[in-house]
Amino acid sequence: MKRPVAIWINVTFRIIVAFAYFLVGMYVAFYSEFDLGTTFGVPTIVLFGILFMAYGCFRIWRAYAYFNSTDDEDEEYQK
Q: Looking at the predicted structure, is the pLDDT value of residue 15 above 60?
């Protein structure tokens, strides 16, 4: 069934925010010049950047899961 416009707006916003988190993580990990020391031999700022990038990937996956779940509900109501 055709999805409402509100769902498309919601998914688009979720994807934009996910890419924003990922890009902030890229900036923090590779372009930022803060020095927060090292943890396990890796600069802490790189670990923070990787954390942001992982959260961005998680948000993309959640947007995909939300998008798929909206179609399943519509099929159940048609039966």
A: yes
Residue 15 near residue 61 (C-beta atoms within 8 A): no
Alpha-carbon span 56 to 17, nearest angstrom: 8
Whole-model pTM: value is 0.79
H/E/C letters for each residue in 39-71?
Answer: ECCEEHHHHHHHHHHHHHHHHHHHHHHHHHHHH
- Across 42-62, average pLDDT: 94
For residue 18, the surrounding DSSP H or E stretch is helix 5-26
The helix/strand/coil state of 35 is coil
